[in-house]
Write a structure and sequence with these properties.
With 78 residues, the protein is mainly alpha-helical. It is built from four helices and two strands; from the N terminus they run ααββαα.
């Protein structure tokens, strides 16, 4: 799905989705040869999770750090 359809399906604005991309909360599933960013249903679920956490009081910075820890559990361990 393209950005507009993904945002609509996730219940956020296109601007919010673009912001999530910019700050590293979300990455496109793939990028077409023409440069269009495409997303799958897992991205929609991640956006919904971001929204739920943010509405629960977590700042976006903390949400990003949680995702980074989850995706790279060894990062930061010595």
């Amino acid at each position: 799905m393209q950005i507009g359809k993904t945002a609509q399906k996730a219940g956020v604005s296109k601007q919010s989705l673009q912001y999530y991309l910019m700050v590293g909360l979300l990455e496109p599933t793939c990028v077409t040869p023409s440069g269009r960013r495409m997303f799958d249903n897992a991205a929609v679920e991640r956006i919904r999770l971001i929204q739920k956490l943010n509405k629960s009081g977590y700042p976006l910075r903390a949400i990003r750090e949680l995702f980074m820890e989850r995706e790279n559990p060894e990062k930061g361990k010595k």
